[in-house]
Amino acid sequence: MAGNLKEEIAAANDKFMACFDSADFEGLSKLYTPDCRVMPTGMDTLIGPEGVKAVFGGANKAGAKKVVLAIVEVGELDTDFNMAYERSEYTFLKEDGAVFDKGKYVVIWKRIDGIWYLYTDIFNTSK
């Protein structure tokens, strides 16, 4: 089932990248559970959709205009196939394509009604 899981998480990541790249932070926040936790570098944990919009909208305002996500590993966290983890890398790019930030992240995913949502998202820069 891990091969299928990786494809499903990759599809969810494609939606994430499309929302970020189009500055659709409302849409991006809907990819997370309502009780999500976002844990960015150097900040307190933010809870819920408003936290998602604040973190990624803030990154956009600071100069990150595109994001590239590269999956390193995914795996199941329960036997019901409703929780999964992802360990991956990200690159934020400026308008001109130059690297704005590069780092790594871990996401705990929750599957609700057959759809994968980000539940806990922790990331930090490698710069």
In words, what does this structure look like?
The chain has 127 residues and is α+β, with helices and mostly antiparallel strands. Strand 4 and strand 5 form a beta hairpin. 31% of the residues lie in helices and 45% in strands. A 6-stranded mixed beta sheet has the order 2-1-6-5-4-3, with helices on one face. It is built from 3 helices and 6 strands.
Task: Provide the helix percentage.
Answer: 25-40%
Indicate the proportion of strand residues. Answer: 35-45%
Number of strands: 6
Mean of the pLDDT scores?
A: 95
Give the N-to-C terminal Cα separation.
35 Å
Give the biggest sheet: 6 strands, mixed
Uncertain parts = none
Task: State the shape.
Answer: globular
Structural class: alpha+beta
Write the element-wise H/E pattern from the N-terminal end onward.
HHEEHEEEE
Q: Could you tell me the radius of gyration in angstroms?
A: 14 Å
Specify the number of helices: 3
Widest beta sheet: strand line-up: 2-1-6-5-4-3
Question: What's the arrangement of secondary structure elements?
Answer:
Elements (H helix, E strand, L loop, with lengths): L1 H20 L3 H5 L2 E8 L6 E2 L1 H14 L3 E11 L6 E11 L5 E14 L2 E11 L2
Parallel strand pairs: 1-6
Antiparallel strand pairs: 1-2, 3-4, 4-5, 5-6
Compact summary:
With 127 residues, the protein is α+β, with helices and mostly antiparallel strands. It is 31% helix and 45% strand. It has helices spanning 2-21, 25-29, 49-62, and strands spanning 32-39, 46-47, 66-76, 83-93, 99-112, 115-125.
